[in-house]
Write a structure and sequence with these properties.
Elements (H helix, E strand, L loop, with lengths): L3 E6 L2 E9 L5 E3 L4 H5 L19 E4 L4 E4 L2 E2 H7 L2 H10 L5 H12 L6 H9 L6 H15 L12 H25 L12 H10 L10 H13 L7 H10 L5 H12 L7 H14 L5 H8 L20 H17 L4 H13 L3 H5 L6 H11 L7 H22 L27
Antiparallel strand pairs: 1-2, 2-3, 4-5, 5-6
The chain binds s-citryldethia Coenzyme A.
The site of s-citryldethia Coenzyme A has 22 residues, from α17.
Length: 429
Protein backbone atom coordinates (compact mmCIF):
# COMPACT_ATOMS: atom_id res chain seq x y z
CA UNK A 1 0.00 0.00 0.00
CA UNK A 2 1.76 3.21 -1.12
CA UNK A 3 1.93 6.02 1.41
CA UNK A 4 -0.34 9.04 0.97
CA UNK A 5 -0.85 12.43 2.63
CA UNK A 6 -4.28 13.79 3.52
CA UNK A 7 -5.14 17.50 3.59
CA UNK A 8 -8.44 18.59 5.06
CA UNK A 9 -9.95 21.79 3.66
CA UNK A 10 -13.28 22.59 5.30
CA UNK A 11 -15.20 19.33 5.42
CA UNK A 12 -13.34 17.80 2.49
CA UNK A 13 -10.31 15.56 2.79
CA UNK A 14 -7.93 15.43 -0.16
CA UNK A 15 -5.36 12.70 -0.60
CA UNK A 16 -2.00 13.10 -2.32
CA UNK A 17 0.70 10.52 -3.11
CA UNK A 18 3.95 10.48 -1.12
CA UNK A 19 7.10 9.71 -3.06
CA UNK A 20 10.23 8.23 -1.45
CA UNK A 21 13.75 8.67 -2.83
CA UNK A 22 16.55 6.09 -2.83
CA UNK A 23 17.88 7.65 0.40
CA UNK A 24 14.43 7.50 2.01
CA UNK A 25 13.68 11.21 1.61
CA UNK A 26 9.93 11.81 1.49
CA UNK A 27 7.85 14.31 -0.50
CA UNK A 28 4.17 14.97 -0.88
CA UNK A 29 3.46 15.07 -4.61
CA UNK A 30 1.16 18.11 -4.99
CA UNK A 31 1.06 18.05 -8.80
CA UNK A 32 -2.76 17.87 -8.69
CA UNK A 33 -3.28 20.16 -5.67
CA UNK A 34 -4.69 23.21 -7.48
CA UNK A 35 -6.81 21.19 -9.87
CA UNK A 36 -8.33 19.24 -6.96
CA UNK A 37 -8.60 22.02 -4.34
CA UNK A 38 -8.10 25.43 -6.01
CA UNK A 39 -5.34 26.01 -3.46
CA UNK A 40 -1.60 26.45 -4.05
CA UNK A 41 1.21 26.18 -1.49
CA UNK A 42 3.39 29.14 -0.48
CA UNK A 43 7.05 28.66 0.50
CA UNK A 44 9.26 31.77 0.23
CA UNK A 45 12.80 30.73 -0.73
CA UNK A 46 11.59 27.17 -1.41
CA UNK A 47 12.84 26.08 2.03
CA UNK A 48 10.37 23.15 2.09
CA UNK A 49 9.73 22.72 -1.62
CA UNK A 50 11.33 20.19 -3.95
CA UNK A 51 11.63 21.43 -7.55
CA UNK A 52 12.49 18.09 -9.09
CA UNK A 53 13.75 14.56 -8.58
CA UNK A 54 17.42 14.07 -9.38
CA UNK A 55 19.95 11.24 -9.46
CA UNK A 56 23.06 13.45 -9.58
CA UNK A 57 23.95 14.61 -6.05
CA UNK A 58 22.74 13.62 -2.60
CA UNK A 59 23.02 15.84 0.49
CA UNK A 60 22.09 14.94 4.02
CA UNK A 61 22.21 18.26 5.88
CA UNK A 62 21.64 16.80 9.33
CA UNK A 63 24.54 14.35 9.01
CA UNK A 64 26.79 16.45 6.77
CA UNK A 65 26.81 13.96 3.91
CA UNK A 66 27.60 14.87 0.27
CA UNK A 67 27.83 12.26 -2.52
CA UNK A 68 28.10 12.67 -6.30
CA UNK A 69 26.21 9.80 -7.95
CA UNK A 70 26.68 7.77 -4.76
CA UNK A 71 30.41 8.41 -4.34
CA UNK A 72 31.30 10.16 -1.04
CA UNK A 73 32.86 13.60 -1.56
CA UNK A 74 35.73 12.65 0.79
CA UNK A 75 36.78 9.78 -1.50
CA UNK A 76 36.41 11.79 -4.70
CA UNK A 77 38.40 14.71 -3.23
CA UNK A 78 41.20 12.34 -2.23
CA UNK A 79 41.29 9.90 -5.17
CA UNK A 80 39.66 11.51 -8.23
CA UNK A 81 40.39 14.45 -10.53
CA UNK A 82 38.18 17.38 -11.51
CA UNK A 83 37.69 16.24 -15.12
CA UNK A 84 36.85 12.70 -13.96
CA UNK A 85 34.29 14.11 -11.49
CA UNK A 86 32.90 16.37 -14.24
CA UNK A 87 32.37 13.29 -16.43
CA UNK A 88 30.75 11.42 -13.50
CA UNK A 89 28.29 14.25 -12.80
CA UNK A 90 27.35 14.78 -16.46
CA UNK A 91 27.19 11.16 -17.65
CA UNK A 92 26.30 9.44 -14.37
CA UNK A 93 29.19 6.95 -14.18
CA UNK A 94 32.94 7.12 -13.61
CA UNK A 95 34.57 6.96 -17.08
CA UNK A 96 36.53 3.99 -18.36
CA UNK A 97 40.10 4.79 -19.39
CA UNK A 98 39.07 5.06 -23.03
CA UNK A 99 36.16 7.36 -22.19
CA UNK A 100 38.36 9.51 -19.95
CA UNK A 101 41.15 9.78 -22.52
CA UNK A 102 38.63 10.89 -25.18
CA UNK A 103 37.02 13.36 -22.73
CA UNK A 104 40.30 14.97 -21.66
CA UNK A 105 41.68 14.96 -25.23
CA UNK A 106 38.63 16.84 -26.53
CA UNK A 107 38.50 19.30 -23.61
CA UNK A 108 42.22 20.04 -23.93
CA UNK A 109 41.72 20.87 -27.61
CA UNK A 110 38.75 23.16 -27.09
CA UNK A 111 40.42 25.58 -24.66
CA UNK A 112 41.02 28.24 -27.33
CA UNK A 113 38.30 30.87 -27.66
CA UNK A 114 37.54 32.61 -30.98
CA UNK A 115 40.04 35.42 -31.61
CA UNK A 116 37.14 37.86 -32.02
CA UNK A 117 36.30 37.25 -28.33
CA UNK A 118 39.70 38.65 -27.35
CA UNK A 119 38.39 42.13 -28.17
CA UNK A 120 35.62 41.68 -25.61
CA UNK A 121 38.11 41.63 -22.73
CA UNK A 122 39.75 44.89 -23.75
CA UNK A 123 36.33 46.54 -23.99
CA UNK A 124 35.73 46.05 -20.24
CA UNK A 125 37.08 48.65 -17.81
CA UNK A 126 40.11 47.29 -15.93
CA UNK A 127 38.12 47.68 -12.72
CA UNK A 128 35.45 45.31 -14.09
CA UNK A 129 34.59 42.55 -11.60
CA UNK A 130 35.72 39.26 -13.19
CA UNK A 131 32.28 37.73 -12.57
CA UNK A 132 30.73 40.34 -14.85
CA UNK A 133 33.35 39.52 -17.49
CA UNK A 134 32.80 35.78 -17.04
CA UNK A 135 28.99 35.84 -17.27
CA UNK A 136 29.10 38.14 -20.33
CA UNK A 137 31.57 35.92 -22.13
CA UNK A 138 29.71 32.71 -21.29
CA UNK A 139 26.57 33.90 -23.08
CA UNK A 140 28.70 35.47 -25.83
CA UNK A 141 29.95 31.97 -26.67
CA UNK A 142 26.42 31.24 -27.95
CA UNK A 143 26.91 33.80 -30.74
CA UNK A 144 29.92 31.89 -32.09
CA UNK A 145 28.16 28.52 -32.27
CA UNK A 146 24.66 29.29 -33.59
CA UNK A 147 24.42 25.77 -34.99
CA UNK A 148 24.61 24.19 -31.54
CA UNK A 149 21.98 26.07 -29.59
CA UNK A 150 19.12 23.58 -29.75
CA UNK A 151 19.04 21.77 -26.37
CA UNK A 152 16.96 18.92 -27.82
CA UNK A 153 19.40 17.89 -30.56
CA UNK A 154 19.91 14.15 -30.29
CA UNK A 155 23.32 14.08 -31.97
CA UNK A 156 26.69 14.84 -30.44
CA UNK A 157 26.15 18.62 -30.78
CA UNK A 158 25.15 18.88 -27.10
CA UNK A 159 28.21 16.88 -26.00
CA UNK A 160 30.39 19.21 -28.08
CA UNK A 161 28.80 22.25 -26.41
CA UNK A 162 29.44 20.67 -22.99
CA UNK A 163 33.11 20.08 -23.78
CA UNK A 164 33.49 23.56 -25.26
CA UNK A 165 32.06 25.17 -22.11
CA UNK A 166 34.24 23.20 -19.67
CA UNK A 167 37.31 23.87 -21.81
CA UNK A 168 36.72 27.54 -22.49
CA UNK A 169 35.61 28.69 -19.03
CA UNK A 170 39.20 28.30 -17.80
CA UNK A 171 40.53 30.49 -20.63
CA UNK A 172 37.79 33.10 -20.13
CA UNK A 173 38.48 33.11 -16.36
CA UNK A 174 42.23 33.53 -16.78
CA UNK A 175 41.84 36.21 -19.43
CA UNK A 176 39.38 38.15 -17.25
CA UNK A 177 42.15 38.25 -14.62
CA UNK A 178 44.82 39.30 -17.13
CA UNK A 179 42.49 42.07 -18.33
CA UNK A 180 42.00 43.29 -14.75
CA UNK A 181 45.77 43.66 -14.17
CA UNK A 182 46.58 44.96 -17.66
CA UNK A 183 48.82 42.01 -18.54
CA UNK A 184 48.89 40.35 -21.96
CA UNK A 185 46.73 37.24 -22.18
CA UNK A 186 48.42 33.84 -22.20
CA UNK A 187 47.10 31.20 -24.60
CA UNK A 188 46.27 27.68 -23.44
CA UNK A 189 48.84 24.99 -24.30
CA UNK A 190 47.99 21.34 -24.95
CA UNK A 191 51.01 20.10 -23.03
CA UNK A 192 49.28 21.03 -19.77
CA UNK A 193 46.44 19.28 -17.93
CA UNK A 194 43.34 21.28 -17.03
CA UNK A 195 44.57 22.89 -13.82
CA UNK A 196 48.14 23.40 -15.05
CA UNK A 197 46.74 25.14 -18.13
CA UNK A 198 44.60 27.47 -16.04
CA UNK A 199 47.46 28.38 -13.70
CA UNK A 200 49.79 28.96 -16.64
CA UNK A 201 47.25 31.26 -18.31
CA UNK A 202 46.83 33.08 -15.00
CA UNK A 203 50.42 33.57 -13.93
CA UNK A 204 52.72 33.04 -16.92
CA UNK A 205 54.33 36.29 -18.19
CA UNK A 206 56.26 37.01 -21.39
CA UNK A 207 59.09 38.30 -19.22
CA UNK A 208 59.81 35.15 -17.21
CA UNK A 209 59.33 31.40 -17.29
CA UNK A 210 56.54 29.93 -15.18
CA UNK A 211 55.94 26.31 -14.26
CA UNK A 212 52.80 25.43 -12.25
CA UNK A 213 53.66 24.18 -8.74
CA UNK A 214 52.38 20.58 -8.34
CA UNK A 215 51.16 21.41 -4.81
CA UNK A 216 49.06 24.26 -6.18
CA UNK A 217 47.85 22.16 -9.13
CA UNK A 218 46.63 19.38 -6.80
CA UNK A 219 45.02 21.84 -4.38
CA UNK A 220 43.19 23.58 -7.24
CA UNK A 221 42.00 20.27 -8.69
CA UNK A 222 40.62 19.29 -5.28
CA UNK A 223 38.88 22.67 -4.80
CA UNK A 224 37.20 22.31 -8.21
CA UNK A 225 36.01 18.80 -7.24
CA UNK A 226 34.57 20.12 -3.96
CA UNK A 227 32.62 22.85 -5.80
CA UNK A 228 31.42 20.71 -8.70
CA UNK A 229 27.79 20.20 -7.70
CA UNK A 230 25.45 20.72 -4.79
CA UNK A 231 21.96 19.64 -5.90
CA UNK A 232 19.31 22.40 -6.15
CA UNK A 233 21.24 25.44 -4.83
CA UNK A 234 20.39 28.96 -5.98
CA UNK A 235 22.59 29.08 -9.09
CA UNK A 236 21.74 25.52 -10.17
CA UNK A 237 18.03 26.24 -9.77
CA UNK A 238 18.61 29.33 -11.93
CA UNK A 239 20.28 27.20 -14.62
CA UNK A 240 17.38 24.76 -14.53
CA UNK A 241 14.68 27.39 -14.78
CA UNK A 242 16.45 29.27 -17.60
CA UNK A 243 17.03 25.98 -19.42
CA UNK A 244 13.39 24.96 -18.90
CA UNK A 245 12.35 27.67 -21.39
CA UNK A 246 14.54 25.80 -23.97
CA UNK A 247 17.03 28.67 -23.97
CA UNK A 248 20.47 27.34 -24.98
CA UNK A 249 22.98 25.94 -22.48
CA UNK A 250 25.34 28.91 -22.83
CA UNK A 251 22.61 31.30 -21.63
CA UNK A 252 21.57 28.95 -18.83
CA UNK A 253 25.08 28.72 -17.35
CA UNK A 254 25.62 32.46 -17.82
CA UNK A 255 22.48 32.99 -15.71
CA UNK A 256 23.88 30.52 -13.18
CA UNK A 257 27.07 32.56 -12.96
CA UNK A 258 25.03 35.70 -12.38
CA UNK A 259 23.15 34.02 -9.50
CA UNK A 260 26.37 32.60 -8.02
CA UNK A 261 27.87 36.12 -7.81
CA UNK A 262 25.65 37.08 -4.88
CA UNK A 263 27.40 37.29 -1.45
CA UNK A 264 24.76 35.00 0.07
CA UNK A 265 25.84 32.32 -2.43
CA UNK A 266 29.12 31.88 -4.31
CA UNK A 267 30.14 35.50 -3.71
CA UNK A 268 30.56 34.55 -0.03
CA UNK A 269 34.13 33.30 -0.59
CA UNK A 270 35.18 36.83 -1.57
CA UNK A 271 33.10 38.32 1.28
CA UNK A 272 34.77 36.01 3.85
CA UNK A 273 38.27 37.28 3.06
CA UNK A 274 37.08 40.90 3.00
CA UNK A 275 35.42 40.28 6.40
CA UNK A 276 38.58 38.70 7.88
CA UNK A 277 40.78 41.51 6.53
CA UNK A 278 38.36 43.98 8.10
CA UNK A 279 38.59 42.16 11.45
CA UNK A 280 42.40 42.14 11.12
CA UNK A 281 42.47 45.91 10.45
CA UNK A 282 40.16 46.38 13.41
CA UNK A 283 42.71 44.73 15.73
CA UNK A 284 41.59 41.10 15.47
CA UNK A 285 39.18 41.04 18.40
CA UNK A 286 36.40 38.53 17.80
CA UNK A 287 33.75 39.34 20.36
CA UNK A 288 32.74 42.66 18.75
CA UNK A 289 31.99 40.85 15.48
CA UNK A 290 30.14 38.01 17.18
CA UNK A 291 27.92 40.58 18.91
CA UNK A 292 27.31 42.36 15.59
CA UNK A 293 26.47 39.05 13.88
CA UNK A 294 23.87 38.27 16.54
CA UNK A 295 22.31 41.75 16.47
CA UNK A 296 19.12 41.67 14.38
CA UNK A 297 19.46 45.40 13.71
CA UNK A 298 23.00 45.00 12.43
CA UNK A 299 23.28 43.81 8.78
CA UNK A 300 26.65 42.19 9.57
CA UNK A 301 26.74 38.40 9.26
CA UNK A 302 29.66 36.05 9.59
CA UNK A 303 30.21 35.29 5.92
CA UNK A 304 31.03 31.68 5.15
CA UNK A 305 28.87 30.58 8.08
CA UNK A 306 25.45 28.93 7.92
CA UNK A 307 23.74 26.94 5.21
CA UNK A 308 20.20 26.28 4.00
CA UNK A 309 20.73 22.52 4.01
CA UNK A 310 23.72 21.69 6.25
CA UNK A 311 22.75 21.82 9.92
CA UNK A 312 26.05 20.12 10.68
CA UNK A 313 29.57 20.71 9.38
CA UNK A 314 29.66 21.20 5.59
CA UNK A 315 31.87 18.22 4.65
CA UNK A 316 33.56 20.38 2.02
CA UNK A 317 34.59 22.94 4.65
CA UNK A 318 36.16 20.18 6.75
CA UNK A 319 38.24 19.00 3.78
CA UNK A 320 39.21 22.55 2.73
CA UNK A 321 40.21 23.53 6.29
CA UNK A 322 42.62 20.57 6.42
CA UNK A 323 43.90 21.40 2.94
CA UNK A 324 44.58 24.99 4.07
CA UNK A 325 47.14 23.77 6.60
CA UNK A 326 48.72 21.34 4.08
CA UNK A 327 48.97 23.82 1.19
CA UNK A 328 50.22 26.76 3.27
CA UNK A 329 52.82 24.55 5.00
CA UNK A 330 54.02 23.08 1.67
CA UNK A 331 54.21 26.56 0.14
CA UNK A 332 55.91 27.91 3.25
CA UNK A 333 53.21 30.53 3.69
CA UNK A 334 52.17 31.83 7.11
CA UNK A 335 48.90 33.70 6.50
CA UNK A 336 47.57 35.38 9.68
CA UNK A 337 44.14 35.40 8.04
CA UNK A 338 43.99 31.60 8.46
CA UNK A 339 44.58 31.94 12.18
CA UNK A 340 41.89 34.63 12.36
CA UNK A 341 39.47 32.32 10.53
CA UNK A 342 40.18 29.47 12.96
CA UNK A 343 39.72 31.79 15.93
CA UNK A 344 36.44 33.12 14.55
CA UNK A 345 35.18 29.56 13.95
CA UNK A 346 36.15 28.53 17.49
CA UNK A 347 34.48 31.55 19.14
CA UNK A 348 31.31 31.23 17.03
CA UNK A 349 30.98 27.48 17.59
CA UNK A 350 31.11 28.00 21.35
CA UNK A 351 28.32 30.60 21.24
CA UNK A 352 24.74 29.46 21.79
CA UNK A 353 23.41 31.76 19.05
CA UNK A 354 25.31 29.79 16.42
CA UNK A 355 24.89 26.41 18.11
CA UNK A 356 21.12 26.81 18.51
CA UNK A 357 20.78 27.78 14.84
CA UNK A 358 23.12 25.02 13.63
CA UNK A 359 25.39 27.56 11.99
CA UNK A 360 28.69 25.99 10.91
CA UNK A 361 31.40 26.98 8.44
CA UNK A 362 30.33 26.29 4.86
CA UNK A 363 32.35 25.67 1.70
CA UNK A 364 33.16 29.39 1.39
CA UNK A 365 34.67 29.91 4.85
CA UNK A 366 38.17 28.55 4.16
CA UNK A 367 38.35 28.27 0.37
CA UNK A 368 39.51 31.88 -0.14
CA UNK A 369 42.54 31.27 2.08
CA UNK A 370 43.83 28.61 -0.29
CA UNK A 371 43.07 30.76 -3.33
CA UNK A 372 45.11 33.57 -1.68
CA UNK A 373 47.99 31.15 -1.11
CA UNK A 374 47.85 30.30 -4.82
CA UNK A 375 48.22 34.00 -5.67
CA UNK A 376 44.65 34.30 -6.95
CA UNK A 377 43.20 37.76 -6.17
CA UNK A 378 40.10 38.04 -3.98
CA UNK A 379 37.86 39.30 -6.79
CA UNK A 380 38.59 36.09 -8.71
CA UNK A 381 37.38 33.77 -5.93
CA UNK A 382 33.80 33.50 -7.19
CA UNK A 383 35.10 32.90 -10.71
CA UNK A 384 36.96 29.90 -9.25
CA UNK A 385 33.68 28.73 -7.70
CA UNK A 386 31.98 29.05 -11.11
CA UNK A 387 34.73 27.04 -12.81
CA UNK A 388 34.19 24.25 -10.29
CA UNK A 389 30.39 24.42 -10.43
CA UNK A 390 30.07 24.44 -14.21
CA UNK A 391 29.92 20.61 -14.57
CA UNK A 392 27.19 20.52 -11.93
CA UNK A 393 25.18 23.18 -13.72
CA UNK A 394 25.59 21.25 -16.98
CA UNK A 395 24.64 17.91 -15.38
CA UNK A 396 21.52 19.33 -13.78
CA UNK A 397 20.51 21.09 -17.02
CA UNK A 398 21.06 17.87 -19.00
CA UNK A 399 18.92 15.88 -16.54
CA UNK A 400 16.13 18.47 -16.73
CA UNK A 401 16.16 18.34 -20.57
CA UNK A 402 16.33 14.52 -20.64
CA UNK A 403 13.38 14.30 -18.24
CA UNK A 404 11.40 16.67 -20.48
CA UNK A 405 10.52 18.78 -17.44
CA UNK A 406 7.94 21.55 -18.05
CA UNK A 407 8.90 25.24 -18.16
CA UNK A 408 9.41 26.51 -14.62
CA UNK A 409 6.62 28.94 -13.76
CA UNK A 410 5.72 29.26 -10.03
CA UNK A 411 2.30 30.64 -8.97
CA UNK A 412 1.68 33.43 -6.42
CA UNK A 413 -0.84 34.80 -3.96
CA UNK A 414 -1.82 38.32 -5.07
CA UNK A 415 -1.93 40.90 -2.25
CA UNK A 416 -2.23 44.11 -4.26
CA UNK A 417 -5.15 46.47 -4.98
CA UNK A 418 -8.47 44.89 -5.99
CA UNK A 419 -10.26 46.13 -9.15
CA UNK A 420 -10.55 49.94 -9.44
CA UNK A 421 -11.39 52.34 -12.35
CA UNK A 422 -8.68 54.37 -14.14
CA UNK A 423 -8.38 57.97 -12.82
CA UNK A 424 -7.44 60.67 -15.38
CA UNK A 425 -4.27 62.64 -14.47
CA UNK A 426 -6.31 65.90 -13.98
CA UNK A 427 -8.39 64.23 -11.26
CA UNK A 428 -5.49 62.72 -9.27
CA UNK A 429 -4.66 64.37 -5.98
C1 LIG B 1 26.77 28.58 -0.76
O1 LIG B 1 22.56 26.07 -1.27
C2 LIG B 1 23.77 25.62 -1.45
O2 LIG B 1 24.04 24.44 -1.53
C3 LIG B 1 24.82 26.74 -1.58
C4 LIG B 1 26.26 26.28 -1.64
C5 LIG B 1 26.56 25.51 -2.91
O3 LIG B 1 27.50 24.71 -2.90
O4 LIG B 1 25.91 25.81 -3.94
O5 LIG B 1 26.56 25.47 -0.52
C6 LIG B 1 27.22 27.47 -1.66
O6 LIG B 1 26.09 29.46 -1.19
C7 LIG B 1 27.14 28.51 0.69
C8 LIG B 1 26.52 29.69 1.54
C9 LIG B 1 27.41 30.94 1.33
N1 LIG B 1 26.80 32.12 1.97
C10 LIG B 1 27.28 32.63 3.12
O7 LIG B 1 28.21 32.16 3.76
C11 LIG B 1 26.58 33.92 3.57
C12 LIG B 1 26.33 33.89 5.09
N2 LIG B 1 25.31 32.86 5.36
C13 LIG B 1 23.94 33.31 5.48
O8 LIG B 1 23.58 34.45 4.77
C14 LIG B 1 22.93 32.17 5.49
O9 LIG B 1 23.39 31.25 6.40
C15 LIG B 1 22.59 31.46 4.19
C16 LIG B 1 22.22 32.41 3.12
C17 LIG B 1 23.74 30.62 3.73
C18 LIG B 1 21.40 30.52 4.48
O10 LIG B 1 20.32 31.33 4.77
P1 LIG B 1 18.90 30.70 5.20
O11 LIG B 1 18.90 29.23 5.01
O12 LIG B 1 17.84 31.50 4.51
O13 LIG B 1 18.86 30.93 6.75
P2 LIG B 1 18.43 32.28 7.46
O14 LIG B 1 19.06 33.45 6.75
O15 LIG B 1 16.95 32.28 7.61
O16 LIG B 1 19.15 32.11 8.88
C19 LIG B 1 18.52 31.37 9.94
C20 LIG B 1 18.96 32.09 11.20
C21 LIG B 1 18.60 33.58 11.20
O17 LIG B 1 18.46 33.99 12.55
P3 LIG B 1 16.95 34.01 13.23
O18 LIG B 1 16.05 34.74 12.25
O19 LIG B 1 16.59 32.56 13.39
O20 LIG B 1 17.14 34.75 14.54
O21 LIG B 1 20.39 32.04 11.33
C22 LIG B 1 20.91 33.37 11.27
C23 LIG B 1 19.84 34.24 10.65
O22 LIG B 1 19.98 35.59 11.07
N3 LIG B 1 22.11 33.30 10.41
C24 LIG B 1 23.25 33.93 10.64
C25 LIG B 1 24.11 33.54 9.61
N4 LIG B 1 23.47 32.71 8.78
C26 LIG B 1 22.23 32.57 9.28
N5 LIG B 1 23.63 34.77 11.64
C27 LIG B 1 24.91 35.24 11.56
N6 LIG B 1 25.81 34.91 10.60
C28 LIG B 1 25.43 34.08 9.60
N7 LIG B 1 26.30 33.75 8.64
Amino acid sequence: MSETAKIQLGDEIFEFPVITGTENEKAIDITTLRAKTGYITLDSGYKNTGATTSSITFLNGEEGILRYSGYPIEQLAEKSTFLEVAYLLIYGELPTKAQFDHWTHKITRHTLIHEDMKDFFGAFPSKAHPMGVLASNLISLSTFYPESLDPDREDSAVDLTIMRLIAKISTIAAWSYKNSVGHPVVYPHNKYNYCENFLNMMFSMPTEDYEPDPVVVRALDQLLILHADHEQNCSTSTVRIVGSSKANLYSAVAAGAAALWGPLHGGANQAVIEMLENIQRDGGGMQKWIVKAKDKDDPFRIMGFGHRVYKNFDPRATIIKKSCDDVLNKLGINDPILELAKQLEEVALSDDYFISRSLYPNVDFYSGIIYRAMGIPTQMFTVMFAMGRLPGWIAQWKEMIANKEPIGRPRQIYTGATERPYVPMAKRK
